[in-house]
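pasting for the record
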Amino acid sequence: MSRKLLCFLSVIIALSTITPLVHAEDQTVFGPSDFEIGSWHVHFSRHTFHLDDPGNGYIVITKNTPDMEIRGGFLFFNRRFIPLRQFLVGDDIIVYKDRALKSTNRLTVFLRGTPGASVTILESSSLFNKTLHFKPPNTKQFNNRMRGQIL
């Protein structure tokens, strides 16, 4: 019994040390920002942010007020239409959308529904998916002329 418990605790400890390392691979590039529906039952806003190193990323959208009705909405992210209606009228609280990040990124948010209802939007770059380029150290080329020098 104690051996099984020791194995179980070892696995839990190993997983708990790996998890923060995986999350450290992501970098927030926009937000988190709250978008609240105003007294005219709509929210409309536009945002721009810049990156030095474009690549893969994802958008995290979270309902802040799940008890208040948001009837529909969408995002335009870098000229790509992202419908949100299914998420906003559904039971899910959070949704992730994979997107490519450019050096200049534009986000347009449109929501309609009950005044005071809001969502939070966060844009992160995924460093885990980036290609790393390593430059090898300066090494001498081995050729037939050097064979006599090495021996």
